[in-house]
User: Fold these one by one.
Assistant:
Number 1:
Amino acid sequence: MAGLLVAFLLIASLILVQLSRRSQPLSAARPLDVDSGLPLPEIGQASTVFSLTALFGAYFGVYLVLGLPALCGLGVGTVIGLLMVRGWIRKQGSTTFEEFLVNMLRGDDTNASAFAFTVSGVQFAYAASELLILHEVCRVCLGIRSDQATLVTICVAIVGYFYVLFGGYLAVYRTDIIQFVFVAAMAISFANQAAHQSVVDWSRVLAPRHGYWEPPFGATGVGYLRLTYQFLVAVVMGAGFIASAPDAWKRAFVVARYRKKSLSRFVLFVAVGIFPFLVLIPFAMTTPVLPDGIVNLRQMFAGLLVNSAVFIAASTGLIASFLSAFDSAVLAGVHVSVIQRRLEKTVAIEVPRFYWRMVTALLTAFLVFQVFTLLGNPYLLANLLLGPVAIIAGVQAGSAAQPAHLRPKSLIWVISLALLAWFLYFISAVNRPTVPTTYQINTIPFGALLCLIVALIAYLLKDRGNPHAGIR
Amino acid sequence: MLEFVKWVLEIAKRIEPGDFAKFCAYLVAPGLVFVAVVSGVFGGPLSFDMERPIAISELRTQMTVAGQPSSSPGVALIVEPIASESRIRVESDQPSFWTSLSPESTIANKDRLVIDRSGITAKPPFLGVPDPVTIVIPGQLGKEIEVPGGTMPVENWQLTARRSASILSGTLLACVFAFGIALTTVIPVGQGNDQAAS
């Protein structure tokens, strides 16, 4: 039954993509210049954020270890991130998303190239990280044999790749609706299971543990200071993920520019963006206590294999959630790269560039997946990506989404030095754990600090003498 | 196989130079990734063989009537009637096994099911036995299984829930469906039919 439903989810989405392609084929000249007619961007935002929470794992891990205050911080940060992106869009005044990206990257060529390369690279690596985690989810939570889990992961990734290739944004947005239905079904089944469990230990759900995200300067006691510190770190993290994700920019752009009653739609957009955080609460209630140290995923998700209905809902929901995040990451990375190339050399027919970048995205994600599979810890890449994500978010926040308008050739140095600092910190703090450990989330406060420092540097380096700065 | 290569070359000849990027994006790149995984370029030599000839389940604990669990290592094998040969390492001081084979069948297959102190060698299918055969061996299971031409991790041969394996069937079906659509999108079918008609 689970296999049948997975096939239904994937094939129904493929048929939907084909119908979309017939009704609105990709333009040969500008295949990704599609803004109007994209249905319900809020839905995809919810699926993508859910992938960050449950599948990507960072938010879920933060919640299990640090409790509700940190989860609230992540939710507030997501809202702040969405409002920040909306502010950039309104300030820039672009009429299409492509114009928004062009204006973002127009300015100093070296800065633009460094930024676009970093954003695309992070998106492709993020897609690879999703592959690694889906593989682990299939193996541990769904009980699929390791070699078969690899095949399942790659097959789902190829199907997701074809969605993007066949239909671009329209395909991704339409399939997001189907995927959202499956993700919602999974959330309901988890909530139902939580409701039937005997007693919920609320102290575990609410209270942070010691040894994680301790405030600096020795202020480690329990109290408002500690909770406030953890809340603020989570706010920076939540806002940073949105500020660094081109997919979130696109969705925010569509809602802000192409919807009547833009404000009310944006409020709905934000509300749906918070939905995944609510899903985490029942999800966490069905999970056994996570001990400090090595994370035993099999023990954590043992409940999924017990109940057939929950198993079916979980398998389809997790694959749907993966597809949404994977497609969005691939498409966003490809789009930024296409725009960067356009600024270097404009051509009348851009579709071959789209195809070549899709090939690059797929092969990069696959090779990175294979390399990190050998390293053993499926969450290592996701953890490593926190640094680059923080740097992109910092650049965006400090330059008000005008990274090419920093002082000439300065951004490449900012990114390089920040990456170096991150990797040095990561090696000293985490080294290279071969299995996932709860202490990996202790790298997040440094990521938040890095984001704030980069934002400050970007703000100071902003080329205020540039007459084009801030306007299109 | 030769016919298939000829067919691929024929298709490649028909691709317009301007459509090369499309051809690579629709068929070459995803095809390469798929073939790399299925053929086991990055994994074991039998990645394509999704149904293993033997399913392994490690036994760990013995329970007494008094309700006292004690550590008791062992291995349960379910051997499918598929032509294959493999050696499973099971270390035991007193090698023996229980089997679902009858005493007569066990004697008839003594060359196909051989046990010693370091493990058991199985060469199914067994003579006169069309069904899967269950074997239980006391002892400590090793990390790898020896197959002709190499070794494979035991993890990849472990017994899994059938509903879990069904997810693989579902995704493979969808993947093949997607490749079918890609093929019809890229290959200029009309041109080929015209040539055939003329």
Number 2:
Amino acid sequence: MSPSRRPLPLALATAAVLAAGALAPSSAHAAKDKIVVGATLPLTGAEARVGGFFKEGYDLAFEELSKKGGLDVGGKKLPVQLVLLDDTSTQATAVSLADRLVNSDRVDFLLGTYASHLVEAQSTVAEENKIPYVNGGGGATKIYKRGFKYLFGLISPVELLGTTLMQWIDEQQRAGKLPKPAKIALLWENTAHGKDFRKGVSDFAGKSGGAYQIAVDESFELNGKDFGALLGKVKAAAVDLFLVDAHLPDYITMHRQYVAAGLCHKIVTYGARGAEKDAIQALGPENTAYVLSGVWWSPQLAAKPGPSRDFVTAFKAKYGGREPEWFQALAYESARVLFSAIQQTGKVDREAVREKLQATKMQSLLPGGTVELKAQFGNQVQNPFVVQQNQKDGSAPIIFPPDAATGTGVGANPKCPK
Amino acid sequence: MARFVDLAVSAVLLAGLYATMAYGLGLIYGVLRVVNLAHGGVIMAGAYLGWVLHGWVGLDPYASIPIVVAATFLLGVAMYRVLVRHLPRGAAGGPASLLLLFGVWLVLRNAAYLLFTGNDQVIRTSYSTHAIPLLGSWVSVNRLAVLAIAVVTPALLQLLLRRTYLGRAIRAVAQNADSCTLVGIDVQRIYTITFGIGTALAGLAGLLSATLFSFNPGFGASELLKSFVVVVLGGLGSVLGTGLAALILAVVEVFAILVMPSYLTAAVGFVMLVLVLVLRPGGLFGQRVLG
Amino acid sequence: MTRWPAIFPPRAAIPFALVVVALALLPVLVGVTPYERNLFTLTFLMISGALAWNWMGGYLGQVSFGHAALFGLGGFVAARLMLHANPTPAPIAWFLGGVAAGIFSLGAHPMLRLRGPYFSIATIGVGEASRLLFTYWEEFTGGASGLSLPIDIGMKALLYWWALGLMALVVVASFLIRRSTLGLQLLAIKADVDAAADVGVNATFYQDLVMVLSGAVVGLTGGLYASFFAFIEPSDMFGFDRSIAFVLMSVIGGVGTILGPVLGAIVFVLLRQFLLASYPQLYLGLYGLLLILIILFEPLGLTGLGLRVARAVRRRRAGARRVVASP
């Protein structure tokens, strides 16, 4: 007798109960009395830190909007509600929850999650269901190369980060502050982010006609613990430029070992991380001096009046005087762009809003000042990055591009002779 | 030549780290024949405890060693008394013990998320980046401290095992638990204490890690996997073997960068793990119970 | 040669067939939202994977913590074939993915000699080494960025029936293996491999057979998974979390049984959704607690619980009958 036969009815009953719990929609709205925007963010798991920051950006945008009463739709002012779920930094959950938001909770539009692989997976749900998906969290170019019409990215391609850094470095080389040819050690975390960064740098070097040689080109695992051997290889290669793409924990670990090993290079960067306050606190300002970073947005852009300043003021007011970083800015801007498109359309119509999103051309806090979502780039913005450099006094002025600069950069780290 | 010395120094320092991580796992398996999958969770707990003490009371991490060790010892005792004790002994307990402790790890992780959020934390002291010159390269003082502890721990453990009654009882239980009751040894008590020592070692490893790396509630997973490699190489239960195995693993991983991309050097350890298990299951040094 | 006797007794076969038919007709007759349908599809896939894992972990007693390597391999092989200049039709790609995973499993032959936790630890090594190697092998897996498949609008709907069909086949296969002579031989090997060899069971052959079948089916599941998400990347496919998921599903449901992995997979997918939506702060801890309680109190998991309840109900009914019957 098969023991598994008896409990079958019991099993089906259990499954039914669970299914009911899992499938029960979290909200139901009959008449159109509000606009519902769904989103997931990695609030736990590997990307939890930045996920939390993105939430701050979304929260601020929605709060500002509700203070204005909502969006003007069909003559009435409709409030806009955010339904935010935790996708735990896993792909399957991000997709399932997006599915749930769209097909069960019946949200009207979607805002994106954070991290390229999550955005890449989740955006397929949006595309299949023909629902606009505006994100500030997926920077990898390949996400936008699939011909999707409903996916919009407010985050410039990571490749451009590598390219922008190289552009500033190139200026220094042309001014004679760096040797020519300059040898590069290129270390990158083995993620979509790191691969794109590497591509940006190596493409630039390849087109430079020999001005740059990549002497070390190695990837490393996220959350690595020991970079001793790798840094030893860098030391042995006697390079001039130390270019790394890393997330915060690896930045801290690697740079500590870098400093402890007595390494010093004329140019040091860790991708987007250099100016992060947590890092400067963990490593000490004397050790992070002259580190370059390329970011999608910097609070220093608030030095001039404009959308950046408005954003920083509002953020500080809501979050007790704390200054925002690029994470909150991109999330905020994604929401703002979506709101603007809905407002312009005047109705809660996904197709019409999609058209308006595609035609977006508005003033923005992003570097460059305006934001456009052009189909030729897969609806991904191509706004420039700003390059910051930590100075000895603890500040981190923007040194590039010139129109956003608040300070001049030090061409070659004066602490490293020759 | 300088390159060689650099790599050798890196390898020795790394070995210290690996050894410290693995001792606890090895001890628990050696005596209880239980694979402590919560090892990673206790490492994480040790790190957070050190961070809390440093942040709230301003206690230097090295000064808080006794507190963290005591606390994680008690945690291990509690884990054993409440949970592990009920597992069937021997091979029958295999997957059950693995999964029970995995469940404990999940609970620990959740607790950390609730208490501290998922943000990366780091302990920063005045000497975090201090280094001293040694053999032509610079060596971080924290790494040296870890190495020192890695060398001292097995020595202390040996003292415990050979010179004290408790130690002899532990060795007896590891050899033949049933006979021990005949000579009046309270086997459960020995198991409890051993488990506690194992988790205390894990907590210590976590505390030391917190001085070197940043950590979050997910910390400990890769450390656990590496510890498996070390413990298996060393012969699942031999403390001395664990230390030597850590050295061999570290040397292989570090020098592998000369012949393969850095990213793949991590795979070398796991390949070694499988090869050793298949070809020489007693570990590189032959199966010894303790010592 | 193995006989195939009354493999599928009517008492089990008929309710099972009814359930399958009901599920097949569900979207057509009753109508489900795409969300519910997709959730079911994912559940069917997980059930297939868990059952296949269980052939090794439950029937044979070799608990593998490295099945993600097979899942990922099958998925990426299928994805590569579908991305080729001459794209392979999805079902064939999935099948070939399964074949590739099955062949890869053969490589683990030397590991089968290991017993108990030694085998498990070895599989951890294989799993991690595979993850690192395949993440590095960009030409095959796309590296850390993964592979994106072209969107096929109808595919997700069709996958419901494909996954249902796969699940039905795997359940039938589970019965086949368990109730045939092969099953007896596996039980013998699980109990004591040396004694089994003494009574003439060709332990090596059968262990290899089960391992290849288990790997092939898990690889097949990986292929369907790839089509379902239209995007896969190595850390998700090959990660330790993925390997642990297979173990969790079988153990929570009841390792070694057939209903076990089915229940476990249902709990894993649906309960996870439920917890994430209602108690996002606690779902990790609740999972851990569930695991602890099951290991301590009911080694046969939810199936064991169900059996106990059924037995208690029967006893009470028998007792009542006795009371009524006596004059």
Number 3:
Amino acid sequence: MRVISVSRLEPSKRPYDFLAVAQRVCAKRGPVEFVWVGDGTMRMKVVEEAKKMGLDMVRFVGRLSEDKKNLLLHQSDVYVSTSESEGFALTLGEAFLAELPVVVYDLPVYNEIYNDFPLKVKMFDVNEFSEKVSLALDKPDWLRTRVIQAKRFVEQNYSYQSVGRRATQALNEILKLS
Amino acid sequence: MRILGVTEDSRFLAGGRIAFIKLMKALAYAGNSVTILSSIGATLGVVDPQPARIIRINVTQARIVGPLLYMFKLFFHLPRQIPQAEIILVNSGYTVYIVALLGRLFRRKVVVLQHDVLGLEYLQSIASTTSRKYTSVLRWITIYTPLRIVDGVLCISDSTMRRLRGMGYSGPAYVVGNVVG
């Protein structure tokens, strides 16, 4: 089983929380692979911390091409984001397109963008986060249904066509303003 | 519509830069003529901008020196590209000031694509070293102060628009979302 996160390794993404969640999930369920895709200024420190914590099942694979990233998403079971601030969270949408359940901290922006499709966790509560990841790994039927609905929602609202149409309209209106 | 897009890039892959190229691509799919001006960086080979055209300026990937060199080179590239565009869309970041000023000079409307809106206090709190604290102040100034002189803002979410309004921005703003996939 594999849990994946795609993000820069920066403080606002809280990669240490990712390690704490990995530790708790593996302690409860046995070996589950945790993969972080993305690079950043914290990489050395976080890799070192994972070693110190003895987390052999955590891998930091760095930056990947879109194709490789999407392949890895499709080969995973759960998507997580421990970020504490987001403007949109593009990768959540990509995870839904790959039909993955998503576990995140409860940021208001997620409700605006993805309705109630992600599984939300109280801010910085790594114990609750681990429990939700475990739940998602069990893949209950209600969660599978929710993920399929989320995929359809993303396809309808965030396609090239729908965003291109909205942006063209906005730019035209700005051009008309004196 | 003929649109010029301007964005920064660096050796680290950032969602905001990918989102910008995808938005330009979406605008091209919607029937607009789109050219993107960017630097060499992590998005190269990651996102295919077609049918939008992209011009990548060659600069070093080093921190501070890379952005400074890119800004310097933009002073030569922008005057060639701006007259061919009807409107300029610039990705939120350190290039906004230069684009806004040159856009005014050439009488073209300049619109910013705004992603997350982060307060200075927050940026300071996550800066791990003294030099990063200084660069975060500089970054905050270069991102948010030029919003006073642009013609509009495209926001990726309602949340971004709310925070932008909370910071005092009162100009035209529209929520367009991001392309996913």
